[in-house]
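Reopening closed ticket. The problem is back. First fold of the pair:
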Amino acid sequence: MEPLSWTGSLSVLNPIYLALWAAFGIAVIAQIVLSFVSPSAEMQGSALAAKKTPGEMAGTASRYLFLGIIALTLIYLIGGILIPGIENKGIVGAISARFLPVWIALVVTFALSITFKRKLGLYGKLFDSFVGMIGFAIVMFWVFTGVFSAMDLIVTHDPLSQVSGMKNKSPGEPLAGAEAGEYAFYLLGGDNLARDVFSRMVSGSWVVIQIAPLATLFAFMVGITLGLPAAYYGGKLDTFLSFLANLILAFPVILLFYLLVTPEIVATGLPSYMASVLFLFPIIFLVVLFNSRFYTQPSKQKVYVGGILIVGLLLYFSLISQDRTPLNFWPDALDLFDIPGGVLVVFVSVVFVNSPTVFRIVRGIALDIKTRDYVAAGQTRGEGPWYIMLWEILPNARGPLIVDFCLRIGYTTILLGTLGFFGLGLPPESPDWGSTINDGRRLLSIYPHPALAPAIALMSLVLGLNLLADGLREESLKD
């Protein structure tokens, strides 16, 4: 069996594709150079001023060329799904076909979101921003990839299995001794342990999607729960909490991460004790949120608060009680899940490192908002402090906080990759992108593909999060 080419039967389009990229590069460079050349005063005052300047013409050309590149890329991707035979699909087409569930999910998500965008608040307004839509598409691509990879709908091989004869093989290499029903190719080649790079890249997205958003959400709950009262009450409480936050922020982030996940620190049980404190904050936040909202409706208040306490404490004890830790006390019959030790350590570290920064952001915004007239009006009506903080101040701070949430997921993703690159936190065989890049860097000059695929995935996700944050910031400023 012959190795796959990159574009299969669509290779006739390759010269056109390369020409479009070359022309696009030239147009962008021309646009940048011509932007420094301003038209003379005589030209500005003449009839020629109504015509496009050379810089504007270069900008128009670059936009049309970029649209041509997108159109041709879509032809490659759609052709890969429709063309029969994996040899005809090529590597790009075969990968596109594997991502078919993701494409369908993206189309459905965008179709529903655009249809009902006027009823979806800030999320709906995101679809009025071209940059925001691109960022959202990239982020949701990796979210759906992670979800479907956990369901074994995308991966072609077990990300941990090794196949004899596939060590450091090039992309598109046929599988040595493939059996009936087994995927016959390593689409992105093999790594130094003869594992499928494509499957490891796809499975690594699930590791990131599991940890980064949820850990960032926990950090926000900690920061909001402490930041709001610090700003609202001020005085000694503000001084004490601000001192603690500044004390943690005084450490370099990478160094603090490194210290928290080293085996010596983990052996002391410190991450478990930290988890027992940090994981209480989501319960506290939700209890205070609903208690303040339904304070005048005792029947609803008891139902909501009681439900949160029962479910929250059950999840809390299942989280902090783990095997081979000092806090292994919860009965197995009530233990809902068992988190791998490395994942728990990384999760706690992310929450601990991000919480002080979120605290300072929330505190700064709340200090400004608490001086507004509607806050004074709430105080005049006799509303409680926590009601004012959570139902008056916090909703009006949502724009900057949502933007920071997206950016912080990107920072967390980079930190997870950094930890994996250093071989800390997650298990060594984990397919997370940082560990995969670290495994591939040793032979980077000879076999770049094992490290290149997860590096591009990591870069694209962080880029998508930053574009999404830019789109949300742009739309939130219009409120």
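Second fold of the pair, where the issue appears:
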Amino acid sequence: MSQQVVTRFAPSPTGYLHIGSARAALFNWVFARKTGGKMLLRIEDTDRERSTEEAIEAIYDGLKWLGLEWDGEPILQFGRAARHAEIAHELLARGQAYKCYCTPEELAQMREEARAAGLPPRYNGYWRDRDPSEAPEGVAPVIRIKAPLSGEIVVDDHVQGKVVFKTENLDDFIILRSDGTPTYMLAVVVDDHDMNVTHIIRGDDHLTNAARQIVIYNAMGWNIPEMAHIPLIHGPDGAKLSKRHGALGVGAYRQMGYLPAAMRNYIARLGWSHGDEEIFSTEQMVEWFSLDGLNKGAARFDFVKLESVNGHYIREATPDYLYEVMVATAREVGREDDLAGLAAHKETVLAALPELQPRAKTVLELIDLAQFIYANRPIIIDEAAGKLLTGDARVTLREVHELLRGLNDWSVPAIDAAMRAFAEAKGLKLGKIAQPLRAAITGRTVSPGIFEVMVLIGKDDSLARLSDQITS
């Protein structure tokens, strides 16, 4: 029986869950689902000064919003420090590690001498083979791993291929600090081993860490997980992704009105592909995913493409779902007037959504488009709409108001027929009536069909809004 696949997502809680971390979580999650395995969550909170409870909650919240539920309880790395130290001392007992008593001044001198000799500035192994009896009094030592002195460390990577590191370029790095706390390098290996992790999928900025971690795996005689190091995400200009490109927290994308399904789809395409498929469901992604499909080249983050993908998911969503997301978004971003309007006119908003959905790329745009339904009178006319309400247009709208007031059948076909007959009688194109009518009733130049709008908000409200503009 083959071993169950176990992946892990292991963020550091020193800030929000950014897009690169979200992508790593997605690939770990989808690979676990594809193989019938598990994705575990480990919070690497050993940096006590920078780790915060707020950041941990933001990670949980971001993963849940994206629909990337982990298996089991999250593991907090700091709480396992005693286990990490235990392994450091076991390595010491095996002769695979040693105590180093060098002072900071001695280490600085070593680095200077290495630089002067044209060598990389690193530890020179001074205490590696010394007799413990030479240890100075009253100095708390660090514990260093004994890195191999010759040969190669090979990382067989699903994305990068065979990556070879010369052991002469690895120093005897610290695994336990002088205060007894473990280093990141040791903690990661011990945790991955104890959590039975079979596959490590992470950014390629960890590739050199992989070589050091393999040294620890080998020293303990542990199985090395399979690895896939994915290229980092770049901005549209090819530079490393930064805040100016969109390296925001996942929560920020939620507040900007992106749907979780769209984010999953878009993020997956940042480093993985299945033929030329651009739009695919999460179920399809799970079905198609393979580590071999991960791209070796860096992906470029593109807001225009994200908006396009999000627009697709908005068009495909049910009105009931979108209404709930609109309410939640309005609440989160503090749009109290919209929140009140959406709540008071739920049925009208639901009825309008099929007309609004094709016109919006984000949920915020959807809220903006729906505002005509619950706008307070007299409604605010935006600048573009105001230009349509000329003196001549207002004269025409007065006649239109009289005509509409006399309509007994307040339906789209009836209003449409009446307006076409009126336009023909006046020798005008229908647009010359419909456009100022839209401006007067919605305050905008863009809306669903204006006759549909009038039916949605009702005869009384339509005539009242029109009256506000022709008498002002």
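Update: turned out to be a display glitch only; the data is intact. The radius of gyration is 32 Å. The beta strands are 6-9, 38-43, 75-76, 97-100, 142-145, 152-157, 161-166, 174-176, 199-203, 226-230. Please close again.
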